[in-house]
Specification:
The protein has about 70 residues and is an all-alpha fold. The protein contains two helices and no strands.
């Protein structure tokens, strides 16, 4: 289309002389990965150590060992 800039290349060989078969295999793998990424949302698993809920102070435990129990993970 006129006035439209060309897209940058998907891959660029910086070193070596790959065969056409090697390039075709690489393009197939990269294209497959890009297609698969768009289908499902990415799930990010966060560690419990970074959870914001940990910074909210809970109720104090009354009784023997209450101070110790307040510092233990819930």
């Amino acid at each position: 289309m006129p006035g439209r800039e060309p897209e940058p290349p998907l891959l660029q060989v910086l070193k070596g002389q790959p065969t056409p078969e090697e390039l075709a295999a690489l393009v197939a793998v990269v294209a497959g990965r890009r297609a698969a990424e768009g289908d499902e949302p990415t799930v990010v698993h966060r560690s419990d150590w970074t959870a914001r809920e940990r910074s909210v102070r809970g109720a104090h435990h009354v009784g023997r060992g209450g101070w110790r129990a307040s510092a233990l993970p819930r």
